[in-house]
User: Which sequence fits this backbone?
Protein backbone atom coordinates (compact mmCIF):
# COMPACT_ATOMS: atom_id res chain seq x y z
CA UNK A 1 0.00 0.00 0.00
CA UNK A 2 1.24 3.41 -0.94
CA UNK A 3 -0.60 5.43 1.70
CA UNK A 4 1.21 7.17 4.53
CA UNK A 5 1.18 5.63 8.02
CA UNK A 6 -0.69 8.59 9.51
CA UNK A 7 -3.53 8.21 7.00
CA UNK A 8 -3.58 4.50 7.69
CA UNK A 9 -3.88 5.13 11.42
CA UNK A 10 -6.76 7.57 10.96
CA UNK A 11 -8.51 5.19 8.58
CA UNK A 12 -8.01 2.30 10.99
CA UNK A 13 -9.42 4.22 13.94
CA UNK A 14 -12.48 5.30 11.96
CA UNK A 15 -12.98 1.75 10.74
CA UNK A 16 -12.82 0.27 14.23
CA UNK A 17 -15.12 3.00 15.53
CA UNK A 18 -17.58 2.15 12.77
CA UNK A 19 -17.59 -1.53 13.59
CA UNK A 20 -18.00 -0.64 17.24
CA UNK A 21 -21.12 1.37 16.33
CA UNK A 22 -22.47 -1.58 14.39
CA UNK A 23 -21.81 -3.77 17.42
CA UNK A 24 -23.67 -1.39 19.74
CA UNK A 25 -26.54 -1.34 17.26
CA UNK A 26 -26.77 -5.10 17.26
CA UNK A 27 -26.72 -5.11 21.07
CA UNK A 28 -29.76 -2.85 20.87
CA UNK A 29 -31.30 -5.28 18.44
CA UNK A 30 -30.87 -8.02 21.00
CA UNK A 31 -31.82 -6.24 24.20
CA UNK A 32 -34.50 -3.62 23.45
CA UNK A 33 -38.05 -4.59 24.39
CA UNK A 34 -40.09 -4.44 21.19
CA UNK A 35 -39.88 -4.27 17.40
CA UNK A 36 -40.22 -0.50 17.19
CA UNK A 37 -37.36 0.30 19.54
CA UNK A 38 -35.21 -2.39 17.93
CA UNK A 39 -35.90 -0.82 14.58
CA UNK A 40 -34.35 2.37 15.85
CA UNK A 41 -31.20 0.59 17.05
CA UNK A 42 -30.86 -1.69 14.07
CA UNK A 43 -31.30 0.83 11.31
CA UNK A 44 -29.55 3.90 12.69
CA UNK A 45 -26.55 2.46 14.46
CA UNK A 46 -25.77 -0.04 11.76
CA UNK A 47 -26.02 2.54 9.00
CA UNK A 48 -23.64 4.73 10.98
CA UNK A 49 -21.33 1.77 11.47
CA UNK A 50 -21.19 0.88 7.80
CA UNK A 51 -20.61 4.57 7.05
CA UNK A 52 -17.56 4.53 9.34
CA UNK A 53 -16.13 1.40 7.76
CA UNK A 54 -16.67 2.90 4.33
CA UNK A 55 -14.78 6.08 5.19
CA UNK A 56 -11.97 3.95 6.57
CA UNK A 57 -11.64 1.79 3.51
CA UNK A 58 -12.00 4.73 1.11
CA UNK A 59 -9.07 6.46 2.84
CA UNK A 60 -6.76 3.51 2.21
CA UNK A 61 -8.20 2.49 -1.14
CA UNK A 62 -5.47 1.68 -3.71
CA UNK A 63 -6.89 4.02 -6.31
CA UNK A 64 -9.52 6.71 -6.75
CA UNK A 65 -11.67 4.41 -8.86
CA UNK A 66 -11.75 1.74 -6.15
CA UNK A 67 -12.71 4.35 -3.58
CA UNK A 68 -15.52 5.54 -5.81
CA UNK A 69 -16.86 1.99 -5.99
CA UNK A 70 -17.13 1.80 -2.22
CA UNK A 71 -18.73 5.22 -2.14
CA UNK A 72 -21.32 4.01 -4.63
CA UNK A 73 -22.26 1.03 -2.47
CA UNK A 74 -22.50 3.16 0.65
CA UNK A 75 -24.63 5.85 -0.99
CA UNK A 76 -26.97 3.12 -2.13
CA UNK A 77 -27.14 1.72 1.37
CA UNK A 78 -27.81 5.14 2.86
CA UNK A 79 -30.73 5.68 0.54
CA UNK A 80 -32.30 2.27 0.96
CA UNK A 81 -31.85 1.65 4.70
CA UNK A 82 -34.47 4.20 5.86
CA UNK A 83 -36.95 3.00 3.25
CA UNK A 84 -36.47 -0.59 4.32
CA UNK A 85 -36.85 0.14 8.02
CA UNK A 86 -39.93 2.25 7.36
CA UNK A 87 -41.44 -0.68 5.47
CA UNK A 88 -40.56 -3.07 8.30
CA UNK A 89 -42.12 -0.81 10.92
CA UNK A 90 -45.30 -0.38 8.93
CA UNK A 91 -45.52 -4.10 8.21
CA UNK A 92 -45.04 -4.86 11.89
CA UNK A 93 -47.73 -2.38 12.88
CA UNK A 94 -50.27 -3.67 10.41
CA UNK A 95 -49.56 -7.32 11.14
CA UNK A 96 -50.29 -6.61 14.79
CA UNK A 97 -46.88 -6.63 16.48
CA UNK A 98 -47.46 -5.43 20.03
CA UNK A 99 -45.61 -2.53 21.58
CA UNK A 100 -43.81 -2.97 24.85
CA UNK A 101 -46.10 -2.31 27.85
CA UNK A 102 -43.86 0.62 28.80
CA UNK A 103 -44.88 2.55 25.70
CA UNK A 104 -46.33 5.90 26.69
CA UNK A 105 -48.35 6.72 23.60
CA UNK A 106 -49.21 5.30 20.22
CA UNK A 107 -49.54 8.33 17.99
CA UNK A 108 -50.08 6.32 14.82
CA UNK A 109 -53.36 4.72 15.94
CA UNK A 110 -55.75 7.14 14.26
CA UNK A 111 -53.63 7.42 11.13
CA UNK A 112 -53.45 3.65 10.77
CA UNK A 113 -57.23 3.49 10.70
CA UNK A 114 -57.47 6.38 8.24
CA UNK A 115 -54.85 4.71 6.08
CA UNK A 116 -56.85 1.49 6.03
CA UNK A 117 -59.97 3.46 5.17
CA UNK A 118 -58.30 5.12 2.20
CA UNK A 119 -56.99 1.79 0.97
CA UNK A 120 -60.46 0.26 1.23
CA UNK A 121 -61.94 3.09 -0.79
CA UNK A 122 -59.36 2.60 -3.52
CA UNK A 123 -59.84 -1.17 -3.73
CA UNK A 124 -61.76 -2.66 -6.62
CA UNK A 125 -65.42 -3.61 -6.21
CA UNK A 126 -65.82 -6.89 -4.38
CA UNK A 127 -69.47 -7.07 -3.38
CA UNK A 128 -72.92 -6.16 -4.58
CA UNK A 129 -74.61 -2.83 -4.06
CA UNK A 130 -77.68 -2.20 -1.98
CA UNK A 131 -80.54 -0.40 -3.80
CA UNK A 132 -78.56 -0.52 -7.01
CA UNK A 133 -81.40 0.00 -9.48
CA UNK A 134 -81.88 3.43 -10.91
CA UNK A 135 -85.23 4.19 -9.27
CA UNK A 136 -83.97 2.98 -5.90
CA UNK A 137 -80.77 4.91 -6.38
CA UNK A 138 -82.70 8.18 -6.50
CA UNK A 139 -84.26 7.47 -3.12
CA UNK A 140 -80.92 6.50 -1.66
CA UNK A 141 -79.36 9.64 -3.09
CA UNK A 142 -81.68 11.74 -0.94
CA UNK A 143 -80.60 9.85 2.18
CA UNK A 144 -76.93 10.24 1.35
CA UNK A 145 -77.47 13.93 0.67
CA UNK A 146 -78.76 14.18 4.23
CA UNK A 147 -75.63 12.39 5.45
CA UNK A 148 -73.36 14.78 3.59
CA UNK A 149 -75.22 17.80 4.93
CA UNK A 150 -74.88 16.44 8.47
CA UNK A 151 -71.17 15.97 7.96
CA UNK A 152 -70.82 19.55 6.77
CA UNK A 153 -72.46 20.68 9.99
CA UNK A 154 -70.10 18.48 12.02
CA UNK A 155 -67.09 19.89 10.17
CA UNK A 156 -68.03 23.45 11.07
CA UNK A 157 -68.64 22.28 14.61
CA UNK A 158 -65.16 20.78 14.70
CA UNK A 159 -63.73 24.14 13.65
CA UNK A 160 -65.72 25.72 16.46
CA UNK A 161 -64.20 23.28 18.96
CA UNK A 162 -60.73 24.10 17.66
CA UNK A 163 -61.35 27.82 18.13
CA UNK A 164 -62.76 27.12 21.57
CA UNK A 165 -59.49 25.44 22.46
CA UNK A 166 -57.49 28.32 20.99
CA UNK A 167 -59.56 30.70 23.10
CA UNK A 168 -60.91 32.57 20.07
CA UNK A 169 -64.42 32.92 21.45
CA UNK A 170 -65.96 35.32 18.93
CA UNK A 171 -65.08 33.15 15.90
CA UNK A 172 -66.19 30.13 17.83
CA UNK A 173 -69.60 31.59 18.55
CA UNK A 174 -70.10 32.47 14.91
CA UNK A 175 -69.07 28.99 13.82
CA UNK A 176 -71.24 27.30 16.41
CA UNK A 177 -74.32 29.17 15.21
CA UNK A 178 -73.39 28.45 11.58
CA UNK A 179 -73.11 24.78 12.48
CA UNK A 180 -76.54 24.90 14.13
CA UNK A 181 -78.15 26.45 11.06
CA UNK A 182 -76.46 23.88 8.79
CA UNK A 183 -77.75 21.21 11.11
CA UNK A 184 -81.27 22.61 10.88
CA UNK A 185 -81.05 22.44 7.10
CA UNK A 186 -79.94 18.83 7.42
CA UNK A 187 -82.94 18.18 9.61
CA UNK A 188 -85.24 19.59 6.98
CA UNK A 189 -83.56 17.32 4.44
CA UNK A 190 -84.07 14.37 6.77
CA UNK A 191 -87.80 15.08 7.04
CA UNK A 192 -88.01 15.36 3.27
CA UNK A 193 -86.09 12.13 2.88
CA UNK A 194 -88.31 10.31 5.36
CA UNK A 195 -91.35 11.43 3.44
CA UNK A 196 -89.99 10.36 0.06
CA UNK A 197 -88.81 7.04 1.41
CA UNK A 198 -92.18 6.31 3.00
CA UNK A 199 -93.95 7.02 -0.28
CA UNK A 200 -91.42 5.23 -2.47
CA UNK A 201 -92.05 1.90 -4.13
CA UNK A 202 -89.32 0.00 -2.32
CA UNK A 203 -89.83 -3.39 -0.77
CA UNK A 204 -91.02 -3.05 2.85
CA UNK A 205 -87.74 -4.40 4.16
CA UNK A 206 -85.62 -2.00 2.12
CA UNK A 207 -87.84 0.85 3.15
CA UNK A 208 -87.62 -0.03 6.84
CA UNK A 209 -83.84 -0.25 6.71
CA UNK A 210 -83.49 3.01 4.85
CA UNK A 211 -85.82 4.83 7.26
CA UNK A 212 -83.86 3.45 10.17
CA UNK A 213 -80.63 4.61 8.59
CA UNK A 214 -81.94 8.14 8.21
CA UNK A 215 -83.08 8.14 11.85
CA UNK A 216 -79.65 7.07 13.06
CA UNK A 217 -77.85 9.66 10.96
CA UNK A 218 -80.25 12.22 12.32
CA UNK A 219 -79.15 11.22 15.82
CA UNK A 220 -75.57 11.99 14.79
CA UNK A 221 -76.70 15.44 13.73
CA UNK A 222 -78.60 15.96 16.97
CA UNK A 223 -75.52 15.05 19.00
CA UNK A 224 -73.48 17.56 16.99
CA UNK A 225 -76.11 20.21 17.58
CA UNK A 226 -76.10 19.54 21.31
CA UNK A 227 -72.36 20.14 21.33
CA UNK A 228 -72.75 23.36 19.35
CA UNK A 229 -75.32 24.63 21.88
CA UNK A 230 -72.91 23.90 24.72
CA UNK A 231 -70.22 25.85 22.91
CA UNK A 232 -72.54 28.79 22.47
CA UNK A 233 -73.00 28.86 26.24
CA UNK A 234 -69.29 29.24 26.87
CA UNK A 235 -68.10 32.62 28.04
CA UNK A 236 -64.83 33.75 29.52
CA UNK A 237 -63.34 30.85 31.37
CA UNK A 238 -59.96 29.29 31.81
CA UNK A 239 -58.92 25.71 31.85
CA UNK A 240 -55.58 24.02 32.38
CA UNK A 241 -53.40 23.98 29.28
CA UNK A 242 -52.55 20.37 30.04
CA UNK A 243 -55.96 19.31 28.77
CA UNK A 244 -55.81 21.18 25.46
CA UNK A 245 -53.73 18.70 23.40
CA UNK A 246 -55.79 15.74 24.58
CA UNK A 247 -59.04 17.53 23.85
CA UNK A 248 -57.81 18.57 20.42
CA UNK A 249 -56.94 14.98 19.64
CA UNK A 250 -60.29 13.77 20.90
CA UNK A 251 -62.12 16.24 18.66
CA UNK A 252 -59.94 15.20 15.72
CA UNK A 253 -60.72 11.53 16.28
CA UNK A 254 -64.43 12.21 16.59
CA UNK A 255 -64.24 14.10 13.32
CA UNK A 256 -62.51 11.13 11.67
CA UNK A 257 -65.21 8.83 13.06
CA UNK A 258 -67.86 10.94 11.38
CA UNK A 259 -65.92 11.10 8.09
CA UNK A 260 -65.48 7.32 8.09
CA UNK A 261 -69.17 6.87 8.82
CA UNK A 262 -70.08 8.93 5.76
CA UNK A 263 -67.92 6.78 3.51
CA UNK A 264 -69.51 3.67 5.02
CA UNK A 265 -73.02 4.95 4.36
CA UNK A 266 -72.30 5.99 0.79
CA UNK A 267 -70.56 2.67 0.08
CA UNK A 268 -73.82 0.87 0.87
CA UNK A 269 -74.99 1.94 -2.54
CA UNK A 270 -71.79 0.77 -4.21
CA UNK A 271 -70.10 -2.13 -2.48
CA UNK A 272 -71.53 -3.87 0.57
CA UNK A 273 -68.28 -5.65 1.47
CA UNK A 274 -66.44 -2.35 1.70
CA UNK A 275 -69.34 -0.79 3.61
CA UNK A 276 -69.12 -3.54 6.22
CA UNK A 277 -65.38 -3.16 6.65
CA UNK A 278 -65.72 0.61 6.90
CA UNK A 279 -68.32 0.26 9.63
CA UNK A 280 -65.82 -1.93 11.51
CA UNK A 281 -63.33 0.92 11.24
CA UNK A 282 -65.93 3.30 12.69
CA UNK A 283 -66.27 0.98 15.69
CA UNK A 284 -62.51 0.90 16.11
CA UNK A 285 -62.34 4.69 16.02
CA UNK A 286 -65.13 4.85 18.58
CA UNK A 287 -63.17 2.54 20.87
CA UNK A 288 -60.23 4.88 20.49
CA UNK A 289 -62.39 7.90 21.34
CA UNK A 290 -63.76 6.07 24.36
CA UNK A 291 -60.31 5.28 25.69
CA UNK A 292 -59.13 8.84 25.15
CA UNK A 293 -62.20 10.25 26.85
CA UNK A 294 -61.56 8.16 29.94
CA UNK A 295 -57.98 9.40 30.13
CA UNK A 296 -59.10 12.99 29.63
CA UNK A 297 -61.69 12.75 32.39
CA UNK A 298 -59.03 11.35 34.69
CA UNK A 299 -56.76 14.26 33.84
CA UNK A 300 -59.60 16.75 34.27
CA UNK A 301 -60.42 15.42 37.73
CA UNK A 302 -56.79 15.64 38.71
CA UNK A 303 -56.65 19.29 37.64
CA UNK A 304 -60.11 20.15 38.96
CA UNK A 305 -58.82 21.94 42.06
CA UNK A 306 -57.42 24.68 39.86
CA UNK A 307 -60.74 25.19 38.08
CA UNK A 308 -63.82 27.18 38.91
CA UNK A 309 -67.14 25.40 38.63
CA UNK A 310 -68.19 27.04 35.35
CA UNK A 311 -65.01 26.10 33.49
CA UNK A 312 -65.14 22.57 34.81
CA UNK A 313 -68.73 22.28 33.67
CA UNK A 314 -68.04 23.58 30.16
CA UNK A 315 -65.00 21.38 29.55
CA UNK A 316 -66.75 18.34 30.97
CA UNK A 317 -69.79 18.98 28.81
CA UNK A 318 -67.68 19.34 25.68
CA UNK A 319 -65.97 16.01 26.37
CA UNK A 320 -69.30 14.31 27.07
CA UNK A 321 -70.96 15.65 23.93
CA UNK A 322 -68.02 14.63 21.78
CA UNK A 323 -68.37 11.16 23.22
CA UNK A 324 -72.12 11.19 22.49
CA UNK A 325 -71.38 12.15 18.91
CA UNK A 326 -69.01 9.22 18.51
CA UNK A 327 -71.56 6.90 20.11
CA UNK A 328 -74.23 8.03 17.66
CA UNK A 329 -71.77 7.32 14.85
CA UNK A 330 -71.15 3.83 16.15
CA UNK A 331 -74.85 3.14 16.37
CA UNK A 332 -75.26 4.16 12.76
CA UNK A 333 -72.25 2.06 11.80
CA UNK A 334 -73.83 -0.95 13.51
CA UNK A 335 -76.90 -0.41 11.41
CA UNK A 336 -74.77 -0.14 8.27
CA UNK A 337 -73.12 -3.41 9.21
CA UNK A 338 -76.47 -5.11 9.72
CA UNK A 339 -77.69 -3.87 6.34
CA UNK A 340 -74.56 -4.97 4.51
CA UNK A 341 -74.48 -8.42 6.09
CA UNK A 342 -78.17 -8.92 5.43
CA UNK A 343 -78.17 -7.92 1.76
CA UNK A 344 -74.90 -9.68 1.03
CA UNK A 345 -76.50 -12.97 2.04
CA UNK A 346 -79.63 -12.34 -0.01
CA UNK A 347 -78.37 -13.55 -3.34
CA UNK B 1 -0.48 -1.29 10.66
CA UNK B 2 -3.84 -1.04 8.93
CA UNK B 3 -4.04 -4.84 9.04
CA UNK B 4 -4.11 -4.73 12.82
CA UNK B 5 -7.04 -2.36 12.81
CA UNK B 6 -8.77 -4.42 10.16
CA UNK B 7 -8.44 -7.62 12.17
CA UNK B 8 -9.82 -6.05 15.33
CA UNK B 9 -12.63 -4.62 13.24
CA UNK B 10 -13.28 -8.13 11.97
CA UNK B 11 -13.52 -9.45 15.51
CA UNK B 12 -16.14 -6.84 16.46
CA UNK B 13 -18.05 -7.36 13.22
CA UNK B 14 -18.29 -11.11 13.68
CA UNK B 15 -19.66 -10.59 17.18
CA UNK B 16 -22.21 -8.25 15.59
CA UNK B 17 -23.15 -10.85 13.01
CA UNK B 18 -23.56 -13.48 15.73
CA UNK B 19 -25.89 -11.22 17.72
CA UNK B 20 -27.95 -10.48 14.62
CA UNK B 21 -28.28 -14.21 14.03
CA UNK B 22 -29.54 -14.68 17.57
CA UNK B 23 -32.27 -12.15 16.87
CA UNK B 24 -32.98 -13.79 13.54
CA UNK B 25 -33.49 -17.12 15.28
CA UNK B 26 -35.47 -15.73 18.21
CA UNK B 27 -37.98 -13.61 16.35
CA UNK B 28 -40.51 -13.30 17.97
CA UNK B 29 -42.39 -11.79 15.01
CA UNK B 30 -41.58 -12.05 11.33
CA UNK B 31 -41.01 -8.29 11.28
CA UNK B 32 -38.30 -8.75 13.91
CA UNK B 33 -36.65 -11.39 11.78
CA UNK B 34 -36.86 -9.14 8.78
CA UNK B 35 -35.14 -6.39 10.71
CA UNK B 36 -32.43 -8.82 11.85
CA UNK B 37 -31.96 -9.95 8.27
CA UNK B 38 -31.58 -6.37 7.03
CA UNK B 39 -29.05 -5.62 9.74
CA UNK B 40 -27.19 -8.83 8.96
CA UNK B 41 -26.77 -7.95 5.30
CA UNK B 42 -25.70 -4.37 5.90
CA UNK B 43 -23.16 -5.58 8.45
CA UNK B 44 -21.82 -8.10 5.97
CA UNK B 45 -21.41 -5.26 3.48
CA UNK B 46 -19.25 -3.69 6.16
CA UNK B 47 -17.30 -6.96 6.45
CA UNK B 48 -16.64 -6.92 2.70
CA UNK B 49 -15.34 -3.36 2.92
CA UNK B 50 -12.93 -4.20 5.71
CA UNK B 51 -11.89 -7.36 3.85
CA UNK B 52 -11.09 -5.16 0.87
CA UNK B 53 -8.52 -3.34 3.00
CA UNK B 54 -6.75 -6.56 4.00
CA UNK B 55 -6.86 -8.34 0.65
CA UNK B 56 -6.28 -5.13 -1.33
CA UNK B 57 -9.18 -5.72 -3.65
CA UNK B 58 -12.62 -4.15 -3.55
CA UNK B 59 -15.52 -6.56 -3.76
CA UNK B 60 -17.86 -4.31 -5.65
CA UNK B 61 -19.21 -7.33 -7.50
CA UNK B 62 -20.47 -8.53 -4.13
CA UNK B 63 -21.27 -5.24 -2.40
CA UNK B 64 -23.91 -3.72 -4.63
CA UNK B 65 -25.84 -6.90 -5.48
CA UNK B 66 -25.92 -7.87 -1.82
CA UNK B 67 -27.33 -4.49 -0.84
CA UNK B 68 -29.78 -4.57 -3.71
CA UNK B 69 -31.07 -8.08 -3.11
CA UNK B 70 -31.54 -7.54 0.61
CA UNK B 71 -33.34 -4.25 0.00
CA UNK B 72 -35.77 -5.77 -2.48
CA UNK B 73 -36.33 -8.80 -0.28
CA UNK B 74 -37.08 -6.70 2.79
CA UNK B 75 -39.48 -4.47 0.87
CA UNK B 76 -41.34 -7.40 -0.66
CA UNK B 77 -41.71 -9.37 2.56
CA UNK B 78 -42.77 -6.22 4.39
CA UNK B 79 -45.48 -5.55 1.82
CA UNK B 80 -46.57 -9.14 2.07
CA UNK B 81 -46.91 -8.80 5.85
CA UNK B 82 -48.89 -5.63 5.38
CA UNK B 83 -51.33 -7.60 3.29
CA UNK B 84 -50.92 -5.75 0.02
CA UNK B 85 -49.43 -8.61 -1.99
CA UNK B 86 -51.07 -11.99 -2.11
Assistant:
Amino acid sequence: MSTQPIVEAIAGVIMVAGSFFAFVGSLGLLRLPDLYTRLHAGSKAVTLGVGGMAIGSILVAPSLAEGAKILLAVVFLFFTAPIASHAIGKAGYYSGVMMSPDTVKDEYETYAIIDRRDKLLKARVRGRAWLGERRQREVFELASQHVRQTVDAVRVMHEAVQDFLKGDLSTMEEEASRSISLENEADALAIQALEVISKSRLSPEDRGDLLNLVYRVRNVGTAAKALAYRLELAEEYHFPSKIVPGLEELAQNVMETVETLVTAVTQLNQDLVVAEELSDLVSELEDLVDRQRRELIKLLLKESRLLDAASFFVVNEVIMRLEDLADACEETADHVRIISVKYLRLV
Amino acid sequence: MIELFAWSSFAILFATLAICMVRLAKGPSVADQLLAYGTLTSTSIGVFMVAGVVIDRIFLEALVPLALVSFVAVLLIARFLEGEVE
Observations:
- The mean pLDDT of chain A is 86.
